Amino acid sequence: MDGLRGVFAGRVEARPPVWLMRQAGRYLPEYRETRSSARDFLSFCYTPELAIEVTLQPIRRFGFDASIIFSDILVIPDALGQRVRFVEGEGPRLDAIENPEALRALASVLDEEKLQPVYEALRGVRAALPASTSLIGFCGAPWTLATYMIAGQGTPDQAPARLFAYQHRAAFVSLIETLTESCITHLTRQIEAGAEIVQIFDSWAGPLPLAEFEAWCLEPVARITRAIRARFPHVPVIAFPRAVAGSLRGFVERTGVQAISLDTAARLAEARAKLPDSVVTQGNLDPLVLIAGGEALDRAVDDIRAATEGRPHIFNLGHGILPQTPIAHVERMLERVRG
Ligand code: CP3
Q1: Staple partner for 70: which of 55, 119, 220, 237, CB 3.0–4.6 Å?
Q2: Contact between 97 and 150 (Cβ < 8 Å)
Q3: d(Cα 257, Cα 13) in Å, to the nearest integer?
Q4: Is 288 helix (H, G, I), strand (E, B) or coil?
Q5: How far apart (Å, rounded) are the C-alpha atoms in residues 301 and 295?
């Protein structure tokens, strides 16, 4: 029973280790309580004592096998000097980057000083976690960060960033370059502060044509992975390229990641057939079936267990847990996974 560490050491246990993307969040009353004491979402992320507390809440309540540091992917644009805020009930808002001139106003190097509270929180979490619980650090992948930086908010099909990349290619290349270096720095500092696994979230990789996908998602994630593995050969990298173009196997081979987090629509049988057993899979329960609960939930859990049996797999969702999720359903899911 050695959780994520066992899986990454190539051991396959009778029950898979489990954690949930966005496991610290609004579906927990204790999260809402702590959250209400912070001025705004970013200061919440940058107050180590609050970030430590909410990171630990789901571990105390559910005993997940891994803890993910409470922060956000948008701390990178914030630490590059772009104004980032979170509007209650709507989501992130940034000053949109409408042309190459606006890009020049941003710093080209991450302000590490600004991110010290994140690293301090990691040290605090590591000190408080049970020894068997893995600590995961993370960043948003350059493409996903660029979609928010250019549009200034979440968009259904990432059209503003896609268009910008076609119209201002040189400027976009340099933005991706800056973000790639920033991700390497941010992950490095997180590992130095106690993260033993890192996950790269490329939530908006889906709508890109193949050539764009290769340039803006695959290549930068490969560069980040190479840099991290060169510095920290013992730290596994998990990639979450949601709804990817091209083949899973090609993605894994070309990026060199140790694990791939599969989204809800990914076919586990195909992953099993195409990926070598040295590559860990993670996922991919539908966050909606966790809201539904009951037999639909049991069936979905059993299907994932059956499809991944005998291969190194980390049980997780196919995307982040939703605020409406009943806690009893998370408990039921855990019993089923661990039973
Ligand atoms: O528990 C954890 O998983 C760790 C913390 C974490 C958060 N965001 C906290 C958060 C992680 C890993 C993220 C990643 C993140 N943030 C992604 C990639 C993963 C994904 O879901 O696709 C993205 C795209 C973001 C950007 C972001 N942050 C959005 C779009 C939103 C608003 C949507 C929402 O759920 O409100 C956020 C805010 C945010 N980040 C919340 C949390 C818990 C909710 C804010 C609140 O408490 O009001």
Answers
A1: 55
A2: yes
A3: 21
A4: helix
A5: 10
Between helix 169-192 and helix 219-231 the angle, nearest 10°, is: 30
Model confidence at 247, pLDDT cuts 50, 70, 90, reads: confident
Q: Which tokens belong to 75?
A: 């701390």
Angle between helices 169-192 and 116-128 (to 10 degrees): 40
| CATH number of residue 41's parent domain | 3.20.20.210
Q: What is the mean pLDDT of residues 165-170?
A: 98
For ligand 1, atom 9, which residue shows the shortest CA distance? 72
Residue nearest to atom 7 of ligand 1 (CA): 72
Determine the Cα–Cα distance for residues 224 and 244; give it in Å rounded to an integer.
18
Q: How far apart (Å, rounded) are the C-alpha atoms in residues 332 and 110?
A: 42
> What is the C-alpha separation between 191 and 12, in angstroms, rounded?
25
The three-class DSSP label of residue 336 is helix
pTM (two decimals): 0.97
> Which residues contact ligand 1 via a Cβ below 6 A?
21-26, 35, 41, 68, 70-74, 86, 91-92, 138, 140, 154, 201, 203, 319-320
For the stretch 106-128, pLDDT in tens is 999 999 999 999 999 999 999 99
Positions marked active-site = 22, 26, 35, 72, 148
| Residue 172, both tokens | 């976009």
When divided into structural domains, the chain yields a total of: 1
pLDDT digits (tens, 9 = 90+) for 43-75: 999 999 999 999 999 999 999 999 999 999 999
Q: Report how far residue 16's alpha carbon sits from residue 308's, in angstroms, rounded to the nearest whole number.
A: 9
| For ligand 1, mutation pick of 72, 90, 319, 321 (most atoms within 8 Å of CB) | 72
